[in-house]
Amino acid sequence: MLDGVTPWPEEFVDRYWAAGYWRGNTLDDLLRGRALEHGARTALAGGGERLTYARLNRWVDRMAAGFLLRGVAPRQRVVVRLPDVPEFVVGLFALMRAGAVPVVCPVGYPTEGVERLVRLTEAAGYVGLSSYEGEDRRAAAEGIAARSPFLRRVFTLDAPGGASPYGGLAADSSGCLYFPLGAVDAPPGPVPPRSSADVALLLPSARPGEPLLVPRTHDDYAHQARAAAAAVSLGEDDVLLAVSPAGSPLALGCPGVVGALAVGGTVVLGDGNGGAGAEGPVTVVAGGDGGGGRGGRARLVQVAHAGPGCDGAQRVVALAEGVVLLDGRPLTPDDEFRVAGPDGADAPEGELLARGPSVPRGYYRAPDANARAFAPDGFLRTGLRARRAADGRLIVNHG
């Protein structure tokens, strides 16, 4: 376990293993297993690419070897700030396969915020676009590297239709090395040993105030994605269109990208031209406002916030902290929820508290925030207002 991560108490570890929630799988091994079973099936479509499971897994293998060859070491943190392109998915799985820890960062996140994340995590690497909406992000990364003693590897991806003026390998005066992401490739070799109890991802919290990161282990995130997939009957014949950003809590793991790949389904990134490149019509839409007709006759549309035209959509509460409610209901019996009043006692309406096999016990390197956000019994104070309906569902106020 990384330094700065709060472990689950042993009694809860034993409970979640005994119940079958945690199964000892790393996220990248779930992908590898599906590649062995469904090699010729389409796994991922987007950005003009259509990748079968075999090709996706091979790309992940080669990029993981490329990261290791270029000095990314196991347990090092690497900030990933990419849009909804295949390289985002491949990069996440490749870093995990190399034993590194991706720090997921929205593509629109300001550079000063990225610098705070680099300092908080002591990130040794950064993966991002070379430019975005007029900002020279390669130059911005160079500025961060000059002020950070940790950042020493930067991997840049050209925006669609763009051409990098920087060519191949480059170095700056601080000793940071710069590589085109497309050149991060090497013959696969033995991968570093990993444990399912290791931190797989660091996800940004939406909690107001200081930037906080949520450490998600392979065990807890794989459980969340599998349980959400089971709850919506997601299977290998489904095509999931990720309308929300692929790195958002809803589109990444509720069941999202990870859940769809874990069951052998197909993921379409972004608008995806309505699912172009997939082997069948879109059946599940993750994100958006439920309107606009995207996904055509999808059997399920998931929305985080109710908007016009979302009648019949599934309302999803999805937090980076592993709090998931589908139409007001938890994923498993061991996902515990309370509605508490100002005094902390149960109340008809109040703050939503959560504890369970996908809810970590603390933020990353944030002891003060942990003291405020987590009760002594491990319940997370989500900051969301909620009440219980007569049928037991939890009604959450997003306003």
From TrEMBL:
It comes from the Bacteria. Pfam families: AMP-binding (PF00501). InterPro entries: AMP-dep_synth/lig_dom, ANL_N_sf, ATP-dep_AMP-bd_enzyme. Residues 34-271 form the AMP-dependent synthetase/ligase domain. Coiled coil: none annotated. This is AMP-binding protein. It comes from Streptomyces omiyaensis.
